[in-house]
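Weekly modeling sync, notes
Attendees: S.R. (lead), two postdocs, one rotation student

Agenda item 3: backlog of single-chain predictions. S.R. asked that every request posted to the team notebook include the full sequence so nobody has to chase files. The rotation student volunteered to paste the first one in as an example of the format we agreed on. Action items at the bottom.

Example entry:
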Amino acid sequence: MQKNNLAIILSGGLGTRFRSSLPKQLHKINNLTLLQLSIKKFSDSKLFTNIIVVSHKDFIEDTRELITGKNINIVEGGISRQKSVQNGLNEAKKYTPKNVCIHDAVRPFFSINLLKEILAKLDKYDGVIPSINVYDSVRYILKKNFKDIKRENLKLIQTPQGFKFNSIFEAHQKYKKNNSTDDSLILYKINKNIKLIDGEKFNFKITTKDDLEFGKLLFEGANQMQNVRVGNGFDVHKFKKGKHLKLFGIELPFEKSLEGHSDADVGFHSIVDAILGALCMGDIGNHFPPSDIKWKNKPSIFFMEYTRNLLTENKFRINNLDITLICEEPKVSKYKNEFIKSVSKALELDQKLINIKGTTTEKLGFLGRGEGIACQVSVTISKNEN
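Predicted structure, as returned to the notebook:
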């Protein structure tokens, strides 16, 4: 599908409604300008052999500094959107493309699937135009006169718009003196076959500063979802003779203790394993080998603080911890609040994000026979860009 497809990205506006000395297409979301985000989407699709960026003459040098890529050309825009498109089409002609997609740089949230659908339908149509229905009530207001407009036949037109190159080039040549804000209207004037397809609600045009802030929220939300990770930890230690045992850093009075190379804190160990798993960084044994004498009787709070620092270094934060202690004895429910406070302090984590519960194996197996304690932990973490 990539053969003979070319993209024209319009970046020629000054954004007067944006009330900024910098045009809106050069404002940033997550360290990339709106223009760069749009270019990246076209490049990542691998559907286009060339990309032409039409820039306002006052910002051509700024645009050149932002853009790299041997298949990306920058041309000067005109005094109107239509004139800018014509400049882009004139530059595109030397590549003899079969199809061209024309896109406004300030719509960075379109999907690659939309590009694929547009190009696929250009096999049958001269133009393929994404649009969405109007569901709000619409009024035409002239001074104090209000006129209701039926919305059934109204459409909101979006870009990218796809065209057979020769058709849209012919249309622009014939109607050079028009001042149209939409290329499909010009194509319609020469009676070409146009297909309306479903657009995308997220593919909105960033026109005001409020739009930009909303775009940032969308981008950050999508990034967070992409960077959510899950980890699981499980540990078990058997009982030995003793006068107390340690769980989640808390010493509990008991006639037995837990056996292990360090302090055998099965709760802390499981949490460490879960976090290391979510970070894809092995397990507690990789970082603190039991064969190494220096970890003998080491307090597990050290392992917790070490793991907390790994989260910080890798820019992750914990979303929640779900912890299950499995044992017949001691009865741990009365210590639940102490456990949560201890975990919260060790990880510098809000107590509301920590859940601890206890269960038994109904007298089955070694845990049911009271030979030890097991702990299972699930953790979710997400990227923290702050």
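Discussion: group reviewed the output briefly. The chain has a mean pLDDT of 87.
Action items: rotation student to repeat for the remaining queue; S.R. to check formatting next week.
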